Amino acid sequence: MQRVAVVGAGISGLTASRELARQGFDVVVFERGRGVGGRISRRREAGFAFDHGAQYFTARSQPFVTELARWVSEGVAAAWEPRMATATNGTLTAKTSRTRRYVGTPGMSALAHDLSSGLDVRTKQRITAIVRHKGAPRISWELHVESQGHTHREGPFDSVILACTPQQGLGLLEEHPEFSRRAGEVAFDPTWAVMLGFNEAIGIDLDAVFVDHPALSWAARNSSKPGRDLRSPQEAWVLHASSDWSRTRDEMDPQRVTDELISAFDSSTGVAFGTPEVATAHRWRYARPARALGLGALWDGRLQLGMCGDWCSSPRVEGAYESGRAAAAWVTGAHGRDSTGQDSTARDST
After folding, report:
1. Structure pTM?
2. Of all helices (H) and strands (E), which one includes residue 77?
3. pLDDT of 344 higher than 60
């Protein structure tokens, strides 16, 4: 049985792992965080729950449409039909859309929990190095893992997939300049997210607002999404700052971020939030790729080494899913060439 190490338990890494496990591979997933999901994580604060990363997702490709149908039938996801508007200079204008939006239930992280079911996922495991044993008769990889202040080694593995952002993975790829060059081309936009919990309704009959303001781009009533467990009349809201504003405020105090985004919401919508019961901020350093590679996944067939993520495919939840499927296909040999168009059984992508 071939062993595969997957670094990262977001949508792309979990999708690749599940596809490989289904085909009989022995897969181990290493995640540096406390849980699975990455940018679709769910945050709990004082009885409130927030989707503070990806707000919803859409489905276009047939494989993802099929996956979505299963999720809906099993209660993992549901359609979200928010009452929407645009906000500019204190004026709200109703907005209609034909886009079909979906969310995980009871939170966006439900998608990741479903994909990780039955997998060997090891959280709080930071990979500090991946080492290839060159003298072996076949490719053999070893991972150096830091956990709870101690470092140990895991392996051997026949293949390794880095399902993380390039900025988090490139330090592990010193011997692969071609991967470093391609992945290094991808820049990410940051986003500050502010989570607000109210014990009373705030008096705005909308669920999602596209905001035209230098600081603020999006506001959503998280409690309007299906399957959320807040008691009426409690409301949970998520504000997403604009990328340009976030980019110049790397080290801003979270309380000041919260205050400025609330002020931006008030002035843009003409509706005052009032005093929240819960107010906290989180900075997504790598919120979304500014421009994805559109390659599906990076793969070197000679080294049995790959990278995947939405930055490889397209900047959506669906893009991460498609990238994970592509990475799994490279490992299983469903693709006959590596990501540079060379024979995956004969040559390195360099």
Report:
1. 0.92
2. strand 77-80
3. no
